[in-house]
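Project outcomes to date are best conveyed with an example. Our students and postdoctoral researchers have been running inverse folding experiments weekly, and each run begins with a structure described purely in tokens. The record below, which covers 351 residues, was selected by the lab manager from last quarter's runs and is presented without edits.
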């Protein structure tokens, strides 16, 4: 019986505008294991949300229900799009950042407030290794640009930023009015925006009565139920050979899987590579690990944790994972050495 593998490839035009997408690399490889006879109950769709490709596969004997569920997801995203103004220039994130820079409060929608509050909680749990308030540092490195031309910022500029040390922790609310104690805060949700979109999609599918589905956004995924009674089989990309899988993870029930990697998006200057993932404690790119894969029921949490654990590095990722309530982790260093937690090993097969 033949086995077919579908490689779903997605990425962003640059790493910190997560909802504007161009294809450039894999973060995960999704293996859709098909039986010899085609299954008539798979309903598939691709939605373009805020410029990002969202791939949905539903397994249901009720095709009409599946189609209506997909329409419901699209409508939910349109509402979210309206509230967030598509994360674009002139949208709510840039308006928030402008208000913060001007030391002025700004009224935000409940969905925006809730996401900021959740991001604050995740940042605190990660010891602020994950911190969406470091947009100025990202600007300093020029990583908002699609093409980085260098050079890296000077040590003096990084030291100045570290002395100011803006953080999402500086934000607070009075009702829906958002304030900042530090005018240097600049929000950038590149570390957990895809996770939020995954959670929104799955929530809507559940409300529509769907029990078995997978949603893929840029290679990060969340599943519910199973694929015709079988586990969803997810391949983890080999950092040294990105077109190959280095491990295979079986998912059932309600679970998300997210990978963060220093090999996925990097820039070179005078023969040295600089990862786009910045360590807020040092002001420099994270370099010690090649990739971190996190499995967790909540995709927003998994997305933030994958970033934080990658920055934490080989000596501290276990400690940070515990603080963030993350049990299932697979870590790959630059030598190809793999380390995984017991909870991950129960689902993971090394290839």
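After processing, the design step wrote out the following sequence:
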């Amino acid at each position: 019986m033949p086995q077919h593998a579908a490689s779903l490839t997605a990425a962003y035009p640059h790493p910190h505008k997560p909802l504007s997408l161009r294809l450039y690399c894999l973060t995960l490889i999704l293996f859709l294991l098909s039986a010899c006879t085609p299954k008539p109950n798979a309903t598939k769709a691709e939605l373009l949300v805020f410029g990002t490709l969202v791939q949905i596969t539903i397994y249901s004997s009720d095709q009409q229900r599946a189609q209506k569920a997909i329409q419901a997801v699209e409508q939910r995203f349109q509402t979210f799009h309206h509230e967030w103004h598509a994360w674009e220039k002139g949208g709510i994130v840039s308006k928030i950042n402008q208000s913060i820079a001007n030391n002025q409060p700004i009224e935000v929608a409940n969905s925006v407030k809730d996401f900021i509050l959740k991001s604050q909680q995740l940042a605190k749990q990660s010891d602020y290794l994950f911190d969406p308030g470091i947009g100025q540092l990202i600007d300093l490195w020029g990583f908002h640009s699609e093409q980085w031309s260098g050079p890296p910022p000077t040590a003096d500029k990084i030291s100045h930023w570290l002395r100011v040390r803006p953080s999402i922790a500086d934000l607070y609310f009075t009702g829906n009015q958002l304030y900042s104690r530090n005018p240097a805060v600049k929000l950038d949700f590149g570390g957990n925006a895809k996770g939020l979109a995954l959670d929104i999609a799955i929530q809507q599918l559940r409300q529509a009565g769907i029990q078995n589905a997978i949603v893929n956004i840029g290679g990060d995924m969340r599943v519910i139920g199973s694929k015709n009674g079988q586990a969803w089989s997810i391949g983890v990309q080999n950092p040294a050979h990105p077109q190959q899988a280095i491990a295979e993870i079986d998912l059932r029930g309600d679970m998300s899987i997210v990978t963060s990697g220093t090999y996925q998006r990097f820039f070179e200057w005078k023969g040295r590579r600089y990862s786009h993932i910045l360590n807020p404690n040092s002001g420099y790119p994270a370099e010690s690990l090649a990739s971190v894969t996190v499995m967790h029921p909540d995709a927003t949490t998994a997305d933030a944790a994958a970033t934080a654990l990658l920055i934490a590095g080989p000596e501290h990722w276990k400690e940070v994972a515990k603080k963030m309530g993350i049990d299932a982790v697979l870590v790959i260093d630059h030598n190809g050495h793999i380390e995984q937690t017991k909870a991950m090993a129960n689902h993971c097969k090394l290839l």
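The chain has a mean pLDDT of 85. The chain has eight helices and 17 strands. The training component of this project remains on track.
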